[in-house]
């Protein structure tokens, strides 16, 4: 039978795999939700990109925030804006949240990237974000401090979304932290049956990192193999999570090619997909069939293992210890990008509340 609906909508309706919009953009959510999206997410880079595209929707509000709070510095204005953008996205997803009885329909808001070494600061900010709307999900990076913060936030009742994660050992550390947090919360008499913790694996950034290493170290292999590294890591994590019965759900992110959805359909998995990639997938003839349980070609795994020690670190459940997470190449690259994205956001805020007189 010919597929008449967009592929992502068919995936959402006919398999156990869900997808989210990888942005809090109002316009993008208005496209994604009718096509089957049941969640959304943000990070500093995404917020900056949304602001650049939808500045007409937010510029007056930024001016109002600054005028109403003359003592606010640029960071305070920025975080007020970030919270309001997340709240607006939460409102758009509220019907999904209600329909799914709280199990879907959440928007993820990310803690300050500057806190990546400070567990207490991350946990405290996560607990605050949890009060912004009933369908909030809070993102924290999978550094050693982040793992501690994820447990504390979970114990406080926060639905977490672990991010800046590229490996099975990071995902396992997250799942173990969540189990501890839920156990603490249940011991206090709380019902945790509606909690929906997730752990993001940024599969495209695994591929990106191996490409960087291949270039820097003059490693020549079939380039198609480098497009499957993140998929292999995700499949390895899915296997471990299924065997151990973790309550945390895996979520794929950082899409770069066809493989990142086409080879990961079916099973207890979520995809968070940028708008442009949603359009590409929905405009394609990608078949919707269960592929997540199909193993990666052993030859691809052998070549990646032989040439890239960092692939082994990412693929094997015991490939890294928590104290190594922050020094892992993809972690450092991504944290630097998130910090840079936040600095770009501050520059936009500054130009609005303190315009450059030389260009007026």
Kindly describe this structure.
- Helices cover 54% and strands 10% of the residues.
- It contains 16 helices and 8 strands.
- Helix 5 crosses helix 16, helix 8 (168-187) packs parallel to helix 11 (229-244) and helix 9 (203-216) crosses helix 11 (229-244).
- It has helices at 7-14, 26-32, 44-53, 55-68, 74-99, 119-129, 144-155, 168-187, 203-216, 223-226, 229-244, 259-262, 275-282, 298-307, 309-315, 329-353, and strands spanning 18-21, 39-41, 106-110, 136-141, 160-163, 198-202, 249-253, 269-273.
- It starts with 6 loop residues before the first helix and ends in a 7-residue tail after the last helix.
- Strands 1-8-7-6-5-4-3-2 form an 8-stranded parallel beta sheet.
- The chain has one domain (7-353): Alpha-Beta Barrel (TIM Barrel).
- With 360 residues, the protein is of the alpha/beta class.
List keywords for this structure.
single chain; 360 residues; TIM Barrel; eight-stranded parallel beta sheet; 16 helices; 54% helix
Give the SSE map.
Layout: H1 7-14, E1 18-21, H2 26-32, E2 39-41, H3 44-53, H4 55-68, H5 74-99, E3 106-110, H6 119-129, E4 136-141, H7 144-155, E5 160-163, H8 168-187, E6 198-202, H9 203-216, H10 223-226, H11 229-244, E7 249-253, H12 259-262, E8 269-273, H13 275-282, H14 298-307, H15 309-315, H16 329-353
Parallel strand pairs: 1-8, 2-3, 3-4, 4-5, 5-6, 6-7, 7-8
């Amino acid at each position: 039978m010919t597929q008449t609906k967009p592929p992502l909508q068919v995936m959402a309706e006919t398999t156990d795999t869900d997808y989210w919009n990888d942005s809090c953009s109002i316009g993008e959510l208005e496209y994604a939700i009718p096509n089957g999206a049941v969640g959304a997410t943000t990070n500093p880079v995404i917020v900056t990109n949304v602001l650049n595209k939808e500045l007409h929707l937010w510029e007056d509000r930024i001016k109002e925030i600054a005028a109403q709070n003359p003592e606010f510095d640029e960071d305070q204005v920025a975080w007020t804006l970030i919270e309001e953008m997340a709240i607006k996205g939460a409102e758009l997803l509220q019907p999904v949240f209600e329909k799914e009885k709280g199990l879907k329909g959440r928007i993820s808001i990310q803690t300050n990237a500057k806190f990546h070494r400070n567990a207490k600061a991350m946990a405290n900010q996560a607990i605050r974000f949890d009060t912004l709307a009933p369908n909030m999900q809070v993102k924290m990076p999978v550094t050693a401090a982040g793992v501690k913060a994820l447990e504390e936030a979970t114990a406080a009742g926060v639905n977490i979304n672990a991010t800046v994660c590229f490996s099975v050992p990071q995902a396992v550390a997250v799942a173990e932290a969540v189990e501890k947090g839920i156990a603490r919360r249940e011991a206090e008499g709380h019902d945790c049956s509606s909690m929906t913790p997730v752990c993001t694996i940024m599969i495209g950034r695994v591929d990106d990192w191996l490409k960087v290493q291949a270039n820097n170290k003059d490693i020549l292999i079939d380039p198609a193999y480098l497009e499957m590294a993140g998929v292999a890591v995700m499949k390895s994590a899915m296997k471990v999570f299924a065997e151990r019965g973790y309550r945390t759900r895996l979520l794929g992110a950082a899409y770069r090619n066809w493989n990142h959805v086409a080879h990961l359909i079916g099973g207890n998995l979520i995809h968070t997909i940028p708008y442009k990639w949603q359009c590409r997938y929905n405009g394609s003839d990608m078949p919707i069939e269960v592929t997540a349980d199909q193993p990666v070609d052993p030859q691809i795994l052998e070549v990646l293992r032989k040439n890239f020690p960092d692939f082994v670190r990412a693929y094997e459940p015991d490939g890294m210890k928590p104290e190594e997470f922050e020094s892992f190449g993809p972690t450092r690259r991504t944290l630097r990008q998130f910090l840079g994205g936040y600095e770009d956001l501050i520059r936009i805020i500054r130009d609005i509340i303190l315009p450059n007189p030389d260009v007026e």
